[in-house]
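pasting for ref
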Amino acid sequence: LLPLVSPVLLFALLTIWVILSPCDILAKQTRLFLWMVGVVFSNVICRVIICQMSDTRSEAFHWLLFPLALVVYAAVTGLLGKNEEMALTIFTTLATAAHIHYGVCVSKMSQITKISFRKYMADILLLKTCCCAAWGSFASCLEKSVPLSVCGCKCQDLF
């Protein structure tokens, strides 16, 4: 249930902002508001997906929700006044830049991961073709669940 906290909180904050907005932000800046909703939701969900793919625990509260909560609070209480549209523009710019930055970082990390994934797959293929004297003739260390370092095999390099 932890990955659901941020999206639920996001939509709660956005619903509060739309309903209680003094200057009717959704009517005045429909495209910008929907762009911001899409970008922030995409960022939250992309982080959840990456956490699931990498078997890491996702964060309960996405960091973009804190400035959003401040903007919503300031807008709903009337602190922003006529500057609500400017606050939406600034927050949308921040969210878009953060999402692009995250995408670039994930792309760079995936290139590193591809290299280590290729090495892992190469090790698996080498284990499958390993001829191990300790376990009998032409026995596969992988079938015996013996690591290559313990096995002491002379393996043929397929690449």
